[in-house]
Amino acid sequence: MVQRMMIAISVLCLVCVGLCAAAEFVDSFEYKFDTKDGIEGWAANGESKLEWKEGGAGNSAGCMKMSGDHASADSATVNFKCDENVISFDYYVHGTPTTRLRLRVAGAENQKKYGAYGNLMIRRVEPDAWHHVEAKLLDLPGMAEGGKAKAFPELEYTKFGFSSIEAVGEGGYIMIDNVKMGKAGGTTAPPAAPEK
Predict the structure, then answer these.
(1) Most buried residue, 6, 15, 76, 176, by CB count within 10 Å?
(2) Do 76 and 146 meet the contact criterion of CB atoms below 8 Å apart?
(3) Is residue 3 part of a domain?
(4) Of all residues in the chain, what percent carry a pLDDT higher than 70?
(5) Does a structural domain hold residue 169?
């Protein structure tokens, strides 16, 4: 009996250690996509196609390319908090007028208070050219009822991704490069309008 109890306690401890390790938060991250390995861990959604493409923003070695009717891809799990962080990235669109950055909110309590996702909508961009965006995570609206939710510093995120809003035309695609998240240190773009 004592032996079984010790085994059960040991298993419980291992599970708790695993859960604590899984919930470790990062203060910053960076995805440069300079090699084919750079897109490892990223996943295409639905009918999207995800690939590495040689050449990127500012003469970088490579970038991530998403194509398909509704081009979309998500990062591997990366736990981070809203705090005073800024996210930035370079993007290039062909065959679609809009794209968005979508941040997946972690935890039922956070989702009740904020909504399942935070969004940065980028509408009517100049196609076939690289653009740079920076935004404070605190400024990105959630999808709570009425679309009025604003982030709070303790808000926890578990993934982020990019997608087209409207269907991508024949041969259309979105390319992403130089994704960074960390403490504010420069000017930031005002957030785009919340998703309707």
Answers:
(1) 176
(2) no
(3) no
(4) 80
(5) yes
pLDDT at 21: 44
State residue 14's pLDDT score: 35
Length of the chain: 196
The pLDDT of residue 4 is above 50: no
CATH of the domain at 135: 2.60.120.260
User: pLDDT band for position 62 (50/70/90)?
Assistant: very high
190 and 133 Cβ atoms separated by less than 8 Å:
no
**The two structure tokens encoding residue 128:** 């076939």
Domain that holds residue 43: 27-183
pLDDT score recorded for residue 168: 77
Number of domains into which the chain is organized = 1
Which amino acid is present at 132? Answer: H
Position 32 in a domain: yes
